[in-house]
Amino acid sequence: MSTVAGQAIIQRQCTELRLKQNKITSQGALILADALRHNIKLRELYLYGNQISDIGSRSLAQAFSVKHSTLIRLSLGSNGITDEGARYFADMLKINRTLRHLLLSANKIGDRGCSQLANTLIYYNTTLERLDLDSNRAVTDSSVSNFVAMIRTNDNLLQKRDR
Q1: Is the dihedral of CA 144, 150, 151, 152 positive or negative?
Q2: Rounded to an integer, what distance in angstroms lies between the CA atom of residue 91 and that of residue 110?
Q3: 17 - beta bridge partners?
Q4: Burial class for 158, CB neighbours closer than 10 Å (0-12, 13-18, 19+)
Q5: How far are the Cα atoms of 35, 50, 95 from residue 21, in angstroms, in the given order?
Q6: What is the DSSP letter of 41?
Q7: Cα–Cα distance for residue pair 158/163, rounded to 1 Å
Q8: Is 2-158 in CATH node 3.30.70.260?
Q9: Would you say the pTM of this structure is higher than 0.85?
């Protein structure tokens, strides 16, 4: 991971990094997060199907909790992220104004995490266009009212889905 971080992220200043379905853990996420603090060009980061967990989510969310981030798409589906990790991303979205797509499908996020994300998108962030929470088995009917309020308040989430 150190080699990827050093070569692709810091030296080459890549704009897109795809590391889907590997065995990247929270330790690898920490290395990535440290490298990403020095990258001013990365626009898309795909980490679907790894083992990032809440600890790795915290590192990544902190790396993108800046106003000058260039990242527009962050894919973290199927990484064992729970409500705790969702809270880190909700806090990140209170600061970050460049991220357009946050993909958190197939994790372990429940009603509490959904509520935190929805409240952030109601009161703090109007730049996110897509929030993907598909297949988070812990989401119940309790989250529906939060999602309805979020959609009523945040016009950016009502974009066309023809892409």
Answers
A1: positive
A2: 17
A3: 45
A4: exposed
A5: 20, 5, 29
A6: -
A7: 13
A8: no
A9: yes
Sorted by where each begins, the domain ranges of the chain are 2-158
Block residue for tokens 């290395």 = 31
How far apart are the C-alpha atoms of 1 and 27, rounded to whole Å? 9
- Band of pLDDT at residue 12, cut at 50, 70 and 90: low
User: How many of the other CB atoms lie within 10 Å of CB of 21?
Assistant: 12
3-state secondary structure of 1: coil
Write the CB contacts of 38 (distance below 8 Å, at least 6 apart in sequence).
9, 10
Is pLDDT above 50 for 162? no
The 10s digit of each residue's pLDDT in 21-75 is: 999 999 999 999 988 887 778 899 999 999 999 999 999 999 999 877 899 999 9
**Secondary structure of 63-126 in HEC code, one letter for each residue:** HCCCCCCCCCEEECCCCCCCHHHHHHHHHHHCCCCCCCEEECCCCCCEHHHHHHHHHHHHHCCC
